[in-house]
Amino acid sequence: MEKSLKISIDSITKSKTIVTIKGFLNSDSKGDFAQTIVKIKNKSKNYIFIVKDLEYVSSSGVGSFMELYEIVSERGGRICFVGMSEPVRRVFDYMGFLSFFGDKDSLDEALKFIK
C-alpha cells in the first residue's frame, strides 16, 4: 500500500476554506501539505479540514497545522477538523494541541463551530 497524501481544496470563500486530506501526513508528505497551506493561508478567515480518510499524522504534520493555526488565530479565525480518526486524534491530544482546534463529526457541525 502506498503511503501518500492526497489534498483537495473543495471550496474557498472569504469566510471559509474547506480542504479534504487523505492518506499519510508525515515528514515525507509535509512539503505537499505546506504548498497547499501557502496557497490558502490568506484566502479565508476560517478553515475546515475533512480528515475522515487521513490515516496517519506525524508530529511534523501536526506542526504544519499549528503554523496555520497561528496565522488564522491572529485574524480571529478558527480551524476545525471533520471526521478525525481516533489514532489521529491521539497524536494531536498527546502533543497537547487538540484543544486549539474544533473536532466535529460532520460538516454541518464544523460550519456551526466556525461561525
Care to describe what's here?
There is one protein chain. This protein is an alpha/beta fold. The chain has one domain: 2-Layer Sandwich (Transcription Regulator spoIIAA). It is 38% helix and 32% strand. It has helices at residues 30-40, 59-74, 86-94, 107-114; strands at residues 5-12, 16-25, 46-57, 79-82, 102-104. A 5-stranded mixed β-sheet has the order 1-2-3-4-5, sandwiched between helices. Helix 1 (30-40) packs parallel to helix 2. The longest helix has 16 residues, at 59-74. The chain is globular and about 30 Å long. The model has no long low-confidence stretch (mean pLDDT 94).
Poorly predicted runs: none
The oligomerization state is single chain
CATH class: Alpha Beta
Note the overall shape: globular
Q: What's the CATH H-level homologous superfamily?
A: STAS domain
Query: What is the level-2 CATH architecture name?
Result: 2-Layer Sandwich
Q: What is the beta-strand fraction?
A: 25-35%
- Spatially, the strands of the biggest sheet line up as 1-2-3-4-5
Number of helices: 4
Into which percent range does the helicity of residues fall? Answer: 25-40%
What is the count of distinct domains?
1
The largest β sheet comes out as:
5 strands, mixed
Number of separate strands: 5
Q: How far is the first residue's CA from the last residue's CA? A: 39 Å
